[in-house]
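Handoff note, outgoing to incoming analyst
You'll be picking up this chain. Sequence as last confirmed:
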Amino acid sequence: MKVLVTFALESEFAPWRASRNFKSGRWGSADVRFTTIGHAQVGVLITALGPSRARLESAKIVWGDFDPLNFCVSAGLAGSLRTNHGVGQVLVARNVFAKITPLDTSSQSFPSSEALVAFATECGATPVDRFYCTPRVIVRAEEKKLLGASADAVEMESFGVLQQAREFGVPAVAIRSISDAVNQTLPLDFNLALTSEGRLSTARILAQLAIQPYALPGLMRLGRQSKQAAQSLCEFLDAFILKVAETGRPLESKVSAASQST
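Most recent structure output, in case you need it:
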């Protein structure tokens, strides 16, 4: 069995990388870290932040009939949009949605694999209806509370990854661990620290801190929460992938993009 797991940032992947023997390699034209869990060969791809970047980077993976991919997990951290989702809680989304353009009131959604949602739930993840995938970091608690009317958590990559998986008929699932609560405003505007490649610039973060030194305690708190959430997520992924790889329960059969669109 061959499994792709995507993270936006190295920091989200760090606890898993530290606990397992990952080896660097290539998968298609992408730089990937590989390990084995049970009967599964697992490849981890770091995509950078944002749905467009996630789709662009995941498209470099071999998705087709040659060296086929059995399933995909879009993993990482997320902001809670509901008061009942706490820091370190692992959520699995039945659907991921995004606005097609910033000025468009319509939206588009992609479902997670029902079988993978069921496996994740059995492994302790909390099933929720929807993640909202956004091209920018949601900073203020007031905006998170408003978004909570239509989604359980906000993140930035699953829409692009599930879109890519759908095109090749590969079962995929969106799984996130909560790093910040719905009532928590982020200490800095991380949108100002994003590079054009979707990376967080340490220099830009320090530049903001130089202007807003009072943000340092909040930044340290967010760092602790993010570390806790990443640790919780990686422990979950170990159990989840092992269960899927070892069980005799089949996933959905691969279907063509044409048949999915009918």
